[in-house]
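Posting this for the archive.
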Amino acid sequence: QTGIDWVAKRDDWIEAVEKLFDTIDEEYLAAVKDSVQVDRTHLKSVQEPQIGEYKSAELALTVGDEQVVFSPKGVNVIGAAGRVDVRGDRGEATLVRNADRSWSLVLARTPRLQLVPLTDETFLEMLRSVMR
């Protein structure tokens, strides 16, 4: 017994992902709302040690004929309180949840982890980097 409430940790993570997607939808995309389709209907199965299998929403942004998918990777990740992978036609990016519940964008993993806070500016820069 590790003293960790895995169900609470899972539920907190699922809620954190939902809140991240709300922020993306309502704040970061506010200026480009007309040109972006937002889809949160797809549920992804996530399998994690200790927690088991659970469902978490994915966020798909469609701009023209291009799609960017935000896919929760899991809550049990090294160096963060959760991870969301971002896939676009031109590349991938990673968002991590910090211990203080804020979100950051991973700029580099090596030689050492480099993070920048996730803001509307860094969000749009990340989108540009993964899209054609």
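The longest strand covers residues 66-74. The chain has a mean pLDDT of 94.
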